[in-house]
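Fold this sequence, please.
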Amino acid sequence: MIFADYSDPDLCRVGNDYYLVASSFDAVPGLPILHSKDLVNWKIIGHALPQLIPVHHFAKTQHGNGVWAPAIRYHNDSFYIYYPDPDFGIYLVKAKRPEGPWTKPLWVLKGKGLIDPCPFWDDDGQAYLIHAFAGSRAGIKSILVIHKMNRAGTQVIDKGVIVYDGHGIDPTIEGPKLYKRNGYYYIFAPAGGVPQGYQLVLRSKHIYGPYERKVVMHQGNTSINGPHQGAWITTPDGKQDWFIHFRDMGAYGRVTYLEPMKWINDWPLIGIDADKDGIGEPVETYPKPDVGKTYPVEVPQTSDEFNSRQLGLQWQWQANPQATWYYLTASGYLRLYAQPMQPHYRNYWDVPNILMQKFPAPQFEVVTKLQFHPLQKGDRAGLIIMGMNYACLAPTATDQGIQLDYITCMHADEGQKEQISHLITSADSTFYFRVSVNEHAQCRFAYSLNGKDFVDVDSVFTAVQGKWIGAKIGLFCTSNMQTNDAGYVDVDWFRVLPSKDK
């Protein structure tokens, strides 16, 4: 559905419009919101979190922490997003319009290891909240708990009840979504872990159970691993049922899939039951949902000419940004000011002021033009592919002039040092950088001084995932020390193009 890292997707439909949210971890702004008319073509329309809280805590990189699997619902003429921070608890943000403005996060339930919340309002107006547990923080996992909330859905009002224990049969059950249909309460929940897991559905006539269990989708004979964790949705006419989920694709992250779904004896079957064992398998291709109209092809935004007064919605920082990190000039440049490398930064894994976006396709090419204006020796800027390993093309200010370096860092998350290869020393401050990514996430960097004649870097870098996320591509500007001013880089444009590889 979307070949990009929108992990743990959830969505709701309001009339003829679909709205999707996904985990964003420590990326800022957080909680991306995407819109579609047909469940196939999607556009980013905003973010529900302009900054992460606690603000000071997320002023530094927090890889793998922050916003885990959220849920979005439309209730009482408002959009509700419940999201977990595994170190602090479960929060609620609300808005009248999905583009925002969104309310500041409200702490609905405090505690460590509380993850994957989903609200539910019953027919009598009583509100409930279901969630799972992260064993790394809570000391227990593989159980699901339902709490009562006040009718406004702003506060949990009881201790909660364990409604399902997956130990022994459904390890690491998590990501629950709570629904009601034909008198049954349904819990859709993934189990078995991310790469190898499956989609489970539980049902009961009573919200607290006991719940019957059924596996409704697994990998089966397909190439689509771990198909699970997502949401059930219907078309506006109520005649079609669909399910979205993710698949773990390593460097590309958790890519989003759309599956047909049907009900058999009040149990859902997701995908296609090719071998007639009663368990669905993911489809490779399938006719689009029939929503009564055909919409033009659209994918989440990528390229940016930087001619707006705001950054494109595809961009996210590696921590809460400061006002002095960037400026969108009147002449159409993104100006990134050199931020000093702090003593505790082991490498760029720890640097917060890296502006990045997701890998958008199996293979693609990025070309960008920048003008480097260093102020002191050691100022550095560049184009980077970031994961637990990273690589970048980086002009660096030296006593001899501007030195263009190709830099790699393996096991950056473990604090390993960079390997630096000197390419050229240039009297010019204008550079064109290109990186071509093939279907194996192999990245070939190249540079040019005139925008026409590109020189390939000899080695090929293979991108790898970050912490719970796919690799990203982006821009940065740093310095070795703080003085009374800062150098900067002006980025003229950043263009994402189809790969030239056949």
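The chain has a mean pLDDT of 97. The first strand starts at residue 2 and ends at 5.
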